Amino acid sequence: MIQIVQGNNHRLPDAEVHVVIDVIRAFTVAHYAFIQGAQKIVLAGSLEEAFRLKRDNPDHLLAGEIKGLPIHGFDLDNSPARIAQANLTGKTLIQKTTNGVEATLNSLNAKEVYVTGFSNAVATAARVKIRLAAAGPEPIVRLIASHPTGDDDLACAEYIAGLLRGGGGPTAAQTLERIRGSEAAAKFFDPGQPAFLPEDMELCLRERPTDFVMKVDTRDGIPVIEREEAN
Fold this sequence. Notes:
alpha/beta, nine-stranded mixed β-sheet
């Protein structure tokens, strides 16, 4: 059974798989961070926790946003275009974002938890299909569109649902059209808001095939995104 849930502040029953989606921009950032060599991404539920983790681990890099804007004292913002230019080989990031991270921390009660944007949606769907083939009868998969009201994450969730069902869902082109036309995307095309880079949307709207997916596990009580081979 495939269910779609929208929002970041929820309490969900247990499931076989949760896939948390944040297209603009948290999990597009995470995808490119791993492409650029990051080892893992620690998820922080608050600024206080993020800064505490940084104090305990000075070599870790703080990355994230509040209301889409950079956070004072963080090493990196929430721009996939900037992340795509960074050398993150062997680095651990501490990520704090408004929607994606929050939704993930509220979605840990599944046997397997994955995060994705559009850039890695196909690989993520393929990995979930493998997981479901090995599961018991009628496993529950929830696709969690982390933006509470935006159409960007919801469009991607419906796209992934179609991939999991083997057809009948929106096409990639239809999905991209919805993401591009979403309220969350508008500010990236607005010259009056220079803090939001058009280059970010180019990466959010581009499939970037990779041989890994992004899986969430808990290490020493802390949720961490790690690379997992796609097959």
